[in-house]
Hints:
Layout: H1 3-17, E1 24-30, H2 34-39, E2 44-49, E3 52-56, E4 59-62, E5 70-74, E6 83-87, H3 88-93, H4 107-121, H5 145-148, E7 151-157, H6 160-172, H7 186-197, H8 215-228, E8 234-239, H9 255-260, H10 263-272, H11 274-288, E9 312-313
Antiparallel strand pairs: 1-2, 1-7, 2-5, 3-4, 5-6, 7-8, 8-9
Amino acid sequence: MSEMRFLLLIVCIVLVAAPFSWGDVAFLLEEPFGTYGAMNPTGHAAIYLSRVCVDTPTRLRRCLPGEAGAVISRYHHIAGYDWIAIPLIPYLYAVDNQQQVPTGADSAMVALLRDAYRRENLANVIPDEEGGRSPKGEWPQLIGAAYDRKIFGFRIEANETQDDQLISRLNSRSNRSHFNLLFHNCADFSRAVINFYYPKAVQRSFIADAGLTTPKQLAKSIVKFSEHHPELRFSAFVIPQVPGTTPRSKPVHGVYESLLKSKKYVVPLTILHPFLTSGMFAAYLVRGRFDPASYVDTEDSTLLPQHPRVTTLSPNSAVPTEQVFDGYVSTSP
């Protein structure tokens, strides 16, 4: 068995087996990529639910034994829906199971994998264009996320009653898009789901992000929430970007951080409004700094470049250096 297959098997074992130990809701902080990511480096936000699975992309149910859960997020201009749910493995790799995941991929291969999965599983939501052609649009972001970007996860314990209540709530309500980049974006949806499980657990930052909800702020909030609630199991993990010729994703930033770390924004802003820039810098120093990688065990730096090894660290308790998701793969303390 190749190292790639072995590492992927580890991921599948821990993510599929985990629900039988303790269920969870995980916030996924996804790095920005491409031209849009360079303009708006706040990244993408999604929610992974270990005991909630996909009946259809717009209807949820409880998972059956052996199922790995689903990833759910808010999207823009995808069949008019507000949220769409995708099974975990297709969400990450655009294939049905771990045996089909390639050891590396270029843009052409990723496009083929996505289109094949769309035709087989999402045709009712994203149909072919005239002549059987693959449709244009933003639908590729639904599947194969790990080809485009590195993903950090922040996972906190949840119970079955909470899962059932969320399923009932989302299935019973209208699922029509009202996406707005400023106030109804993917991070706002993730914030609502986390706060459904734990009211007021996460919130936007009026100081570091001008009141907008950003993925980075949510990650920071859920870490802080876990520190105040040590009775709830918590862990952080990373899913590296798949090796290949596709461009590498970039670090995720908050609102003021995005402006301050971009020369094309900060230079003219400093010249025109030096006091405003100083205020933004102070706000970033006070409330905007947060490194998601610091909550993942990177003592062995060779872990992160490997794919798709998932490492985890629970700040709430002493854990072995290489423990992965509560002992499913671990070394001795």
